[in-house]
Amino acid sequence: MTLADVVVAGLHLLFAAVWGGSVVFMAIAVLPAAREGLLDSEPLAELTKQFKRIARAGAVVTLLTGGHQAANGYMDSLFSSTRGHLVLGMVALWLALAALSEIGAARLTDGTNERKVRTPAADARPFFLAASVVAVALFVDAGALAAPW
């Protein structure tokens, strides 16, 4: 493994962890507070704006670094090996996490633009909960991929 491969793998894990962690944080800390009316629209809008930045950066960096890793280790056996299937599963989960993150954040943004908090938080909740499950599944998949086969 070259130094470039180590850096790419490190960036991949770092951005995946921050993205996944931010999804879970929104689901278990921010949205319940917003649904209870403990947050005003301005702080919720700012948290959502920061979440979008994290989610988008996470999506782009993990796509690029994951593509690099796949091209350097799995392309020949993508459809014919367990490790290849894990990589394909990770791609599908990545797509789901990106979509759920964007939809959930859009639901919050739509409401906070109208100075609402409780309804947008309730509308975004199912998407963030689903995204949290997908984020955990991604880490389980990554753990299986890292295991020696």
SSE topology string: HHHH
User: Residue share in helices?
Assistant: over 70%
Number of strands: 0
Summarize model confidence as the mean pLDDT.
Answer: 94
CA-to-CA gap between the ends?
A: 18 Å
What is the overall silhouette? elongated
Low-pLDDT sequence parts: none
For the largest beta-sheet, the strand count, sense and barrel status come to: none
Structural class: mainly alpha
- Total helix count? 4
- The domain tally reads 1
Q: Radius of gyration, rounded?
A: 17 Å
Binned strand content: under 5%
Pfam families: CopD
Keywords: Membrane, Transmembrane, Transmembrane helix
Protein name: Copper resistance D protein
InterPro entries: Cu-R_CopD_dom
Structure description:
The chain has 149 residues and is mainly α. It has one domain (3-146). The protein is 84% helix and 0% strand. The chain contains 4 helices and no strands. The chain has helices at residues 3-35, 41-71, 82-113, 118-146. The two termini are 18 Å apart. The chain crosses the membrane at residues 6-33, 86-106, 127-147. Keywords: Membrane, Transmembrane, Transmembrane helix. One of its GO terms (cellular component) is membrane. This is Copper resistance D protein.
Write the layout of secondary structure elements.
Blueprint: H1 3-35, H2 41-71, H3 82-113, H4 118-146
Helix pairs in contact: 1-2, 1-4, 2-3, 3-4
Key features?
149 residues; mainly alpha; transmembrane helix; Copper resistance D protein; membrane; transmembrane; Cu-R_CopD_dom
Précis, in short:
The chain contains 4 helices and no strands. It is mostly helical and 149 residues long. The protein has one domain.
